[in-house]
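Can't paste images in this forum, so I'm doing it all in text. The chain is below; anyone willing to post the predicted structure tokens underneath?
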Amino acid sequence: MPTALVTGATAGIGLAFARALAARGTDLVLVARDVERLEAVAAQLRAARGVAVEVLPADLADRAQTQRVADRAGSRDAPVDVLVSNAGFGPALRFLAADVADEERALDVMVRAVLVVTRAAAGAMVERGRGTVITVSSVAGFAPLGTYAAAKAWATTFTESLAGELRGTGVTATALCPGYVRTEFHERAGIAVGRRRGPAWLDADAVVATALRDADRGVVVSVPSALYRAAVTAMRLVPRRVLQRVAAGRGSRRAAAAGR
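Text version of the structure:
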């Protein structure tokens, strides 16, 4: 039976991945900081799907804990067949108003941990000649929208590069780039989003279903929904200076609304 390791597995897109993979009969290694929530999710999935679920509490901003996750992802004795790097968060403030320590933590979680854990998992997968790497990025990564967008731009480019390097090995890499998704993400980031209705808001389970279908087909950049695919195409075609002006205006409005 295959095994998947999912980071940020207790809420939002990560939890949706855990549920979807368990429904496929995939055993799980769930990674998150909150031990109580990890155990609760693990118990639910064991009962509902009859799969084996291992919990691995870890803060991916901590290098020693990240290495523990990497060691598990790269295990030869208990192989991981699917890696889903989902853990992440968005700093609530604009860069010059934010604490540098918070920005460093975000980079550790969304960039460094992805790099370290992916290196371990993909190396072991290549040795076996099979495996799937899915990195949760964002449509935001196609626009100059602050350090969160910059981290997601790295994640997408990293995954595209990795996919090329893996060609012919039996291992695939897919970057999932959703837009707005109804999860806890925005509340945790302190971002007001209103009632979260309309075509711009996506369902986490639907997003994950698209990602898994695309990963099965070897799609490198998975963008759920026609709306966001059109937005990504536009952002790739519009001159960068235009995107910079739009982003600057958006940032100014957010700062004014926040009283900063």
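The mean pLDDT is 89. Residues 200 and 227 are 7 Å apart (CA to CA).
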